[in-house]
Specification:
The chain is built from nine helices and ten strands. By secondary structure, the protein is an alpha/beta fold. It has a domain of 169 residues: Vaccinia Virus protein VP39 (Rossmann fold, 3-Layer(aba) Sandwich), CATH 3.40.50.
Length: 244
């Protein structure tokens, strides 16, 4: 994710319209308790961290991007969330004083390349949230996008990896709307150019007609996100044959 002042503002508005993060917390409620300590690795703007905060003792939100962490700090102050620690760090090299009860990786690669590191960070459970398929707001249905990050982790790829390495896991589906509000058509066009480099004149009219809808005096680009939640016990991570 590219974090700029503009992209953070877009993401903030999108997060306000989705139940995605709340659903993660609900589906993982059996792992969480008032005394639970959590790491949210590669937390980005920190919306999962903020959703987790009321359910646990402490959340350490870690991301390498200072702008994203500054945004999260400000949000936590606005919401009076005093139990979220915001840390600018590359979690691959981050050395906390002790592991967390539950570690979350939400739409953040690292399971394939950082298994040994994750084993040192997880005390009880590792929770990995990933897309079933990479979905770019359904643009591929109308516009030939260049292939980006072909090795990006997805639920099918990670599931096959865990089965091959004989690491036990539980999997739960997570599907919900996670679209993007806009104040104007111009902002919609700016968004598509910012993320996908689509010139304004090249946006397929059929795409706009199907997925962009009037909403609350502006517009809403619908996007149904199909994801999965993988849960692994710490003991099972250590039983796996993967050594990196």
């Amino acid at each position: 994710m590219v974090w700029t002042e503009k992209s953070l503002a877009w993401f903030d508005r999108a997060a306000a319209r989705t139940s995605f993060y709340q659903q993660i917390v609900q589906q993982c409620s059996g792992l969480l308790a008032p005394e639970t300590r959590v790491f949210d690795l590669g937390c980005g703007a920190g919306f999962l961290s903020m959703a987790l905060a009321p359910a646990v003792q402490r959340v350490a939100a870690v991301d390498i991007n200072p702008r994203a962490i500054a945004f999260l700090r400000e949000k936590c102050q606005e919401k009076n969330l005093s139990n979220v620690t915001c840390q600018v760090a590359d979690w691959h090299r981050w050395e906390p004083e002790q592991p967390a009860d539950v570690v979350f990786l939400c739409y953040c690669d690292g399971l394939f390349s950082q298994m040994e590191k994750l084993r040192t960070l997880v005390k009880k459970y590792l929770v990995v949230v990933l897309p079933v398929i990479k979905n770019n707001f359904h643009l591929e249905e109308f516009y030939p996008l260049p292939t980006q990050h072909p090795n990006r982790e997805t639920i099918p790829r990670v599931k096959a990896f865990l089965e091959k390495e004989q690491i036990s896991f539980q999997i739960m589906p997570l599907s919900c709307e996670f679209g993007q509000p806009f104040s104007s058509i111009g902002e919609y066009e700016e968004f598509l150019h910012f993320y996908y480099r689509i010139p304004r004149t090249s946006i397929p009219p059929a795409y706009t007609a199907q997925y962009l809808h009037p909403s609350n005096g502006g517009y809403y680009l619908s996007n149904f996100k199909e994801s999965g939640i993988l849960i692994m016990k710490s003991d099972d991570l250590h039983k796996g044959t993967w050594v990196g």
